[in-house]
Amino acid sequence: MQIPENVIERDAFYQDVIEQCNHTRSDRSILYGENRHFFLFGRGSDENETPYNKIFPHIDMLTAFLFAAETTKFSVHLGPHIDQHEYLRVPSVNRAVNDAWLMSNADQTFGQGLTWSLVYNSMIFKIIPRANDKGLKGIEPFIIDPGSFGVLREDVPYMDRQEAVCHSYYITKSQLEVELASHPKRVDILKSVESYSRQDVQDKPTGVDRIILSASSPTMMGNAEVPLNAQVDYLPKVAAELIEMQELWVWDTKEKDYRVVTRACNDVTIYDRKNFFLAGELPFVQICANPMYSYFWGMSEVAGLVGLQRWRNERTLQVKELLDKNVNPPTALTGWMGLIDEKNFALNRSGGVLTTDGMQAKAEKFKPEIPQDIWAVIHEIDGMFAERSGLQNVMMGKGESGVRSGRQTSELARLGSARIKKRALIVEDALEKIATLYLKLMQKHDTNDYQQDDGKPFILNQFSDDCVVKVDSHSNSPLFVEDHKNMAAELFEAKAIDRESLLEMVDPPMKDLLLRKLKLIQAAEKKAAEEQKAMEGLQNKNN
What we know:
The chain is an alpha+beta fold.
């Protein structure tokens, strides 16, 4: 995009781009609020009763198949024209990337982002490096809900194809004062934003969590915020003054890189600077398990389950009502004098006594008949939940009719996991993008010494730029773990790998300790072999 040189025109240009990026935020936030309510409570914000929330455990199960934080490992893949000496550095680089991933708590952050991407339709993973002149102090990962993020073109998929993206967020007034400590216009900026602070911020406005009261009485006019129920809504309440900020990343055609603009809510430009993250890269990575070719945000998993949850709620309430009538059936009292309620109370009370002089008086209970397959429809609905997301019974540890052997069960699980594996590979792409950005940040800022396999030291900046980070053997999903271990065992039996490579592939507990012990075992074996060879040579000489 051509960014104007004139200051006034540039400010107007930035404001126009921000508005274009955010033009669907309010509409999407309403939908996200409803999806969130269904995920947490199994009902819409305007519905009152949920016998059982099936969506939450279903999404939790699906997330567990798509991403396993404890098994996910990364490995560096070099380009085809790399010098062979670079491969001596790969093991150390692999350990550095995996350590940075775990130390920054990115595994847990990504897991939360994946869960909520299934609820909404996408989540945004943001990477913030903490670096100074002395090196990299750490990498901090964050997840951003899509209601706080906007892109210039929603009809174009993939983050790196966007000309501009905008992240809206809130900070406290005190935090803004600290961040502006060395800003030349600090006083003017703080004065201009002071009247725009707000006291409270919610995670997501639903647009329907209120009751509109209009001329309901002579003394009540307008809008009144009234909670529909007293249940906890899990929305944050912040007492400190908050200031809304916008962080705009816009592609500058002249510089052939992104321009980063930080603005306050009242259109005050605080920073207008070059890309401080990585050349040509955004610090944002989209997490979307259900992408669409024509819609940037993709599809929501929860939105596809709402109809089933409502049907399940309706059917479960019907079953509950039928069971309640069976336990305490409706009663007909005919020919009785006096207060019917008192007589009905005595009739239904343990040890109650009911007398009358009327010859025609009678009490009759209408106990409904309970069908034997009363839960059949609900079980079918639960099966539709699993079918909607590609989950099979054998994958969830449930038995399958007609299966008589463990081998048959394994084969069914392998065939039935095809749909989940396809989506796990989509999630894997986001993981690989994040890990590659981690490595590039470490190459840019990390000044620590690492060791090659031949013992020579190097720093990450000396490592080749022609590389990407991949999820090692699809280890992000538990569906691939057993296949990976079986392959490692077969390679070891075929003598295609050694014991050290076997430990690296299987990744057992205390792997580093086992690798050190393996070196001692190998040294002892080598010494014993040499002694055996010397003894055999001595015996041959004596003979």
